[in-house]
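Pasting as-is:
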Amino acid sequence: MKCVLLILAALGLSLAEESSTYDHFRLPTALRPQKYDVRILTQLENPDDFRFNGTVKIQIEVLKNTHNITLHSKDLTINDTEITLRQIGGEGKPENCITSTERNPIHDFYILNTCEELLAGQVYELSLRFSAQLQDQLSGYYRSSYEDSVANETRWISVTQFEPSSARLAFPCFDEPGYKASFAITLGYHQKYTGLSNMPVRETRPHESIPEYVWTAFEESVPMSTYLVAYSVNDFSHKPSTLPNGTLFRTWARPNAIDQCDYAAELGPKVLQYYEQLFGTKFPLPKVDQIAVPDFSAGAMENWGLVTYAEVTLLYSPEYSSQVAKHGTANIVAHELAHQWFGNLVTMEWWTDLWLNEGFATYVAGLCVEDIHPEWRTLQFETMSNLLTIFRTDSLESSHPISRPIEMTSQTSESFDTISYQKGSSVIRMMHLFLGEEAFRTGLKSYLERYAYKNAEQDNLWESLTQAAHKAGSMPTDYDIKTIMDSWTLQTGYPVINVTRNYTARTAKLSQERYLLNTDISRTHKGCWWVPLSYTSQAEKDFNNTAPKEWMECTETGESVPKTIQDLPGPDQWVIFNNQLSAPYKVNYDAQNWKLLIETLNSEEYQSIHVVNRAQLIDDVLYFAWTGEQDYEIALQVISYLQRERELLPWKSAFENLSFLTGILRQTPNYKFYKSFIRKLITPIYEHMHGINDTDASVQQQDKIRLKGMVAQWACSYEVSDCVTRAVSYFRSWRSEANPDEINPVPLAVRDNVYCTSIEHGSVEDWDFLWTRYQKANVATEKQTILDSLACSQKVWVQQRYLERIFDAKGEIRKQDSLSVFQSIASTQAGFPLAKKYLMDNVDSISKFYHPQSESMAELLLPLSELIFTRKDYNEFKNFIADSKEQLKDIDQAINQSLETMLINVQWKEQNYERFTEAIKKLL
């Protein structure tokens, strides 16, 4: 390349300098790819030299005259001498050429300057040769491995992970979602392997020069974005599924795990059928492959026609995986297959609207699993989990809007978070509930038909849904979805609705403000939301009516319009707003209404309040007490009723809130009072569920199984009743089995808790026994459970030894599992100070360990931030972050959220700790 530039300089040409001034983070808009022909040869036989090389031919349509071609390429060696460019059809001479090339490493641009100007309206074919190492970095085109225990050797495979912007690591391309094109993929590899890609195989033939190698060509794809292209070379087995509508459906895994594919293979086709009915659009491809990849950091990825999964999310073993893990598999398969329409068929124009993909897939996956497995009763649980998560994240000032501007490609990864997924899902559910079934379905169908194989923005969806709503009569004609939904998607946060009743006039005044956990920040002028108001009273108890009776509106300048509700009951009856949490907002009442609610909750009538609203009251009152809008005495009176509660959702709500308090209180002298309070609260439910005895092996209702697991975890942590002795005795009987890898007497529903409790109270021999089980386990969910449980030790040197194993690149813990293990260690009392020190001392080597996936560093901060609550520790952490800018770059959002979380803990300790302790003492 250098000599080309020297010749140019000698000739006095200045093309190179001209084009290098282009420094915008988005591609120029003069060109548009129509079709890619990608040929890739992968060599997996030599572990000392994993590599791939290939050619790409791109047919490019010219929209505006230009002298250069700018596309993406990262870490690829491109042979500049073999680039060809020619015009296809049209007037003029077909041959063109490249005068020089250059790179912009900040934006991964590869710029080719052309001899002749490219003319608008013409189509050109660009051909490039490239090569690269097949790395193990879990993005782009990379290698993964598994152990073949029979042959006692390591087997290697290759696979892709391109979202959001890693196709450029695999072949030169226009790597933005708006540049859809068709792809003809051809893979070259040793004949002992199988090649998979988005489309079915067209033909396989011998390689022209390498013995025992073949070329497999796949059919040309439908138009799609680069991030959805996928291919893999592997020696996996597969399970076929039969589908009534003719789509070929296969589930792939390493041969020694193929028996764990049964559930996913049976479920997948049912999921496809459900969506074909929901969206009123047939699945557009002739086949679907889903594949379980041993090393995979993304959980799962919706590549069109070749969906990739981490083993832990796709594989299910009835002997080793819990019911909760089975629900996880169902949920993730339903999520990824929902994307085949929402994301793949219609794709967001730019990553700003990533939430349209992720929020929608999250929401409809819940509907789908509920439809296929109604006996599990998981929809309410999913909804509640999503809301609990976003009420936390979105009450931080450092949160972000659902639809967020992306100004740098590196920011894209940060958008794959709870706001895009869970808040996105929650606002879509709100919209579904106020639109009604008919308008929701009709609007979706017309949107998918209108933008099939194209790109769209959120406004396009709002338009389709508004038309459907007005036609169905389910929304006033002077309302439109854009106005309502923009208030939820374009501004950060959510409102708290303050309800002040006038008991004599039987009215209530409503006001709204943004809810923030940080009490140092003024809430005035913090936005306005269009809020659908559903409510019911003590006499009416109509919680099933989730349609809005009224709306809180905003002016065009974003001010809240004052609202008065008429015809409410008298002073002896409560009212509850937001039936079944139909929209993501919190509600605070006046003292009399809280008093009436507490009376009902702490009576035999507590079940007259809907279970979701019981969970809501717990969550809301504990938040308001945290920020000082409610007294802790009132909050604790609300949650004291839990001694009667036997349902999952209120307990989940309580446990999530109490865990934030636990993290702080267990490091303080008044912990003993809190511990007594927790024991008093959970002893009745623990005994009601027969402790951790395996009495419910036949129960299919997941809410009961989840509740038992949750209660067991808290009961053993707080040494309630016989919890610890039962757990340790299960573990002892397992240890005494002659063949513990084949026979495990620990009940599946409480396995994680039994392991953790036994390691916490056990010996080093117990730890080593469990580590050996990890090494020998063949089921990913069991391996995950063991890894997390090994973090429960109270022995400092054992935790230190474990921390060092996590970040050992040649060790036995896979990179994808290192984050959850670090989080597990950091969340324990013995592990927290060690994990914090380990991160601070080794931030440089840890950031190199995860490179180039800098977003992984973000996940190490969160568990630490939740347990820091003194000014001294907060300032120490702030200094650490300031000193580690290079190692923590591209994760600004996580840094800001972690620091804010610490500050909120500091505020609570300084303002509420004494008051909270006094309130607890009164109840004991």
